[in-house]
């Protein structure tokens, strides 16, 4: 009986628990064993205690604070840190009946697109263990794809849910900024970070998002999704208009472009209208993002100073060297690079040229989307220009790594929601299809993604599952 | 201050006041009043990973009241910034403060223009072990986060003050105003009111500003006055010797009177301010503004002006009563209870005699009733009791309460009846012919002997002025 749990979506497992065909404890145990047996480096911690639940347990990205459970955001500077409180999202999931299965590996402080920047070693892609799972929520994506978690949550700042979902062949959604509370999410870039689901299918994503979303008095920027999240059920897309962006951009692999074109054809078969659109400022998204996100990060990461928690190196005695040594030892290269970029961008005399300009670009990108949504209901793009790349292929070239987020960065800059669903294979590796909509259009995005998912019938299963 | 100075001082002050809210600025911790260290903390004010600030509505309410008290223009949407620097008393590595869009701008208190009013959070408290008492070279340092995150309002004036005395007087007015509004404890020794001064000098008659220095954290208005005076003297000496004032931050040591440099211009921080993404703007609704307006009591400056205008009190007397709210309140109660409404006499008796007896205490906390006080002042006016005897009665009223007339009666302090006094004066004149002769010959002081005789006879209960008048009348001088 337990074995076929692996073939079920989380929603189907929940139905079996509700019907009394299997207990919450049995389901929990099944997944705990799968998680404990993970060989991809997807997990940093697996639950010791069976907490059962009316929903299957959730794999949680390391940067979510869980009371008493190691929560280090993939960084050595928080090694051994066990928070005295739990994130609102974790509390919401528990209240809904979904316990924490484990903490998943990630790029340190969510800074990366391959999970190679983790302070605790990289994660392998279950489709090809020589390749990256994407990042920064690479552990969550790999765990869902490999069947070591029924579902998972991650965070997306510039693509950190959607890009690994794409590279691992699972569904990943970044909600509207403010849909989900950020309280208890270890911050990377506060004006961009959003928590969202990584799941087997669109229905599971809708269920998980329904439990995650909501206004939280502990997060002033949270609003929730006003109309809530219903289970998606659309079969047709008649009357809906899809704006295609980015297929002609440089760097899109032919196999990726083919899979995306085939998916666009399916949209038409379902009754959707297709239109080429332009987002003239979106191509500056990466440049703006890599000023704004590091600027916020340079402040967000200042608290890791060795004074109140985490490791401290006080070999030299005085305060300044304690700060320097603690942060030198605790942060990885990419984190240091971004702290330096961000500090520079905010410095007196440079603020307007960098941070000020980046904010103007951000406003223009948001305006581009608003203009687009006057003509179309959704904007569709490849999620990633490439399939999963080889481990180590881009680590020496930060700019090449940054471009992995080319198609996913404009949406968080505009604060709007987007989903990535698997749409086919290229060179035997999954390709992701991205659907973005206006702020708080999650219910409509999920409906469209659901209809498309049925039409695509993606049944790819990684070798490892 | 000599009238003909070569240089004119130009002074502005920056005042930080802790708000008397129930909880901290950005979390639910109760404010601390000397509790055990680190017992008023939570993950938010300790800067734990993943925590977020939420602005305290009560603090916003108090800040709106303060901005309104100065008639500031209130920003429709003011925003918070992060002020970034590393120090162990700063849990997040940045202070949440307001920067280019403060809550209030462009007001006035008394004769001084207010530049801005903004909200921010206080830092924690550092305690250094070891001889230096400073963090570098300390044997060990510990942090008490109880204070970290206490709501602060910063008030910055324009450089409108022209002397150390004016600066201290302004500080007192501001303190009285904030205390009267009930928004802060405004205790300088405990640090709930902290004053920094920006000081520069310029050749008298010139209108451009000289280079300023900043004097940090003087913990009484007396020290503020002395510190500014010392800094003005230092700058004048420097410029007179052909030197130039350097922009720096100074500490004034009231014990030695010395000024030491805390930070030079080169060492000034680059705080890398940027908008705080974790908070939404403060956009006061009509309801919030109305609530703040409704909570506003009459402010000391307005009260002084009213007492001066409506009751014809001299300015300094009106200010004395208005700037000590509890004296002002007692004054107005006594005046209301008074039959003859002698505003001036009641005011004088409060600021001279009553204030001398109760010190800093609130008269409402003594056994003295405002009506009894008013009655006593009336009796003096009606010559029912001498001023001297009335002081004795006041002593009794403050200590035990009661009715002044009864005390006068009981202690035999009543002024002699008019006819009786007449007879006593006549007898004294008859008994002291020498003194009468000398007085008639122009020796004014000789009247003392006659008065002494009257006072002995009446056991001091006669009014000195009245006795003098009678003597002069009867001698015919």
What are the defining features of this structure?
heterodimer; A: 465 residues; alpha/beta; Amidase signature (AS) enzymes; 2 domains; eleven-stranded mixed sheet; 14 helices; 11 strands; 12% strand; B: 477 residues; alpha+beta; Arc Repressor Mutant, subunit A; 3 domains; nine-stranded mixed sheet; three-stranded antiparallel sheet; 15 helices; 14 strands; 40% helix; 19% strand; elongated
Overview of the molecule:
The complex is a heterodimer of chains A (465) and B (477). By secondary structure, chain A is of the alpha/beta class. In chain A, 35% of the residues lie in helices and 12% in strands. Chain A has an 11-stranded mixed sheet. Chain A is globular, with a radius of gyration of 21 Å. The two termini of chain A are 17 Å apart. The mean pLDDT of chain A is 96. In chain B, the strands form 3 sheets. A 9-stranded mixed sheet of chain B has the order 2-5-6-9-1-10-11-12-13, with helices on one face. A 3-stranded antiparallel sheet of chain B has the order 4-3-14, with no helix packed on it. A two-stranded antiparallel ribbon of chain B has the order 7-8. Chain B is α+β, with helices and mostly antiparallel strands and 477 residues long. The model of chain B has no long low-confidence stretch (mean pLDDT 91). Chain B has helices spanning 57-69, 164-181, 221-240, 286-294, 300-311, 315-323, 325-337, 343-358, 370-381, 387-400, 404-411, 418-431, 433-440, 447-458, 464-475; strands at residues 7-18, 73-74, 80-84, 94-98, 104-109, 112-121, 125-129, 140-144, 151-157, 193-203, 213-218, 248-253, 258-264, 274-275. In chain B, β5 (104-109) and β6 (112-121) form a beta hairpin. Helices cover 40% and strands 19% of the residues of chain B. Chain B has 3 domains: 7-294, no CATH class; 300-411, no CATH class; 418-475, Arc Repressor Mutant, subunit A (Orthogonal Bundle), CATH 1.10.10. Chain A binds chain B through residues 63-65, 71, 73, 78, 81, 83-85, 87, 182-187, 189-191, 217-221, 295-296, 298-299, 301-303, 305, 307-309, 318-319, 323, 343, 346-348, 351, 355, and chain B through 43, 46-55, 82, 84, 86, 88, 91-94, 135-136, 141, 143, 270, 272-274, 277-280.
